Amino acid sequence: GERKRLFNTSGGDYKSMNMKDRLPDLTDEEAIALLSENGNLIKRPFV
Fold this sequence. Notes:
The chain is built from three helices and no strands. The protein has helices at about 10-15, 20, 30-35.
């Protein structure tokens, strides 16, 4: 739920990685790792 707000859901990487289906099954640690490895997944501006 809230975790999805961190992801750039309109971005090409989000779509190409099929994150819409993957995100609900990720642990917090896995989600943070993905965000730290791929900056294009981060929704900006990060406030």
